Amino acid sequence: MSRYAQPDRRPAVVTGASSGIGAATALSLAAAGHPVALGARRTDKCEELAAQVREAGGEASVHPLDLTDTDSVTAFAAAVTADLGDIEVVVSNAGAVAPGTIHEVDSECFARELDLNIVGAHRLVRAFVPGMVERRRGDLVFVSSDVAVRARPFMSSYAAGKWGLEGMAHAMQMELEGTGVRASIVRPGPTWSEMGTDWEDEEAAFVLNQWVRFGLARHPHFMKPTAIADAITTVVSAPRGVHWNLVEVSPEAPLSKQEER
């Protein structure tokens, strides 16, 4: 018997699904009964994840996806729709971050990150949202970051990208009002994922120390990706008539020692 619940069939797309928040979100949505389409450049990792979903009785589809390539996004959308049917949930999660001082970073590198973090999300919107509007039903979730409201230094274009992503999402919320399509933002705080694992140790240590310097790391706790995945699943599971516009998810501080009196 399937371990996965079977509510109304609502196929879901997750980008950046090969690891971290994306992988955890795919498993969470599948456990909630959603057929899941996994998109990333590393399809081998997505296939491993899809096997877990299928072994537990769920549906999963895997196709290569490069959000910086419009043709790749178009082909992905056609392929997953053919596999699973009309897509009702899209989780825009893929992103990249590189360390660096903004005035020293190569402009082409800066632009590539913005292309993935903002324009890539828009390519996804163009591929799926018109169909949702036509069907008068759908959920779009943008995975943002707390840098959108509290910029962190030495992360190149990342803060600018997330500020821009949230600006687009807020505008879409107004534009989509009354269409039956909900655009939501999930804004994580510090979370353990593969993002940043390609940094040199010295670079990572420098950036983290600067966060402390500017009061952006009040405690050392990071969240597991499952915390964000559960928030995303909650957002798209809201009943009709309810819209979770913005959900902030932050790591809880460690228990402080009770001071003696």
From TrEMBL:
One term of GO molecular function: oxidoreductase activity
Alphabetically ordered keywords of this record: Oxidoreductase
Source species, domain of life: Bacteria
Matches recorded under InterPro entries: NAD(P)-bd_dom_sf (IPR036291), Sc_DH/Rdtase_CS (IPR020904), SDR_fam (IPR002347)
Any Pfam family: adh_short
Family affiliation: Belongs to the short-chain dehydrogenases/reductases (SDR) family.
NCBIfam families for this protein: PRK07775.1 (NF005854)
Protein's UniProt name: NADP-dependent 3-hydroxy acid dehydrogenase YdfG
Organism listed in the record: Nocardioides szechwanensis
Taxonomic lineage: Bacteria, Bacillati, Actinomycetota, Actinomycetes, Propionibacteriales
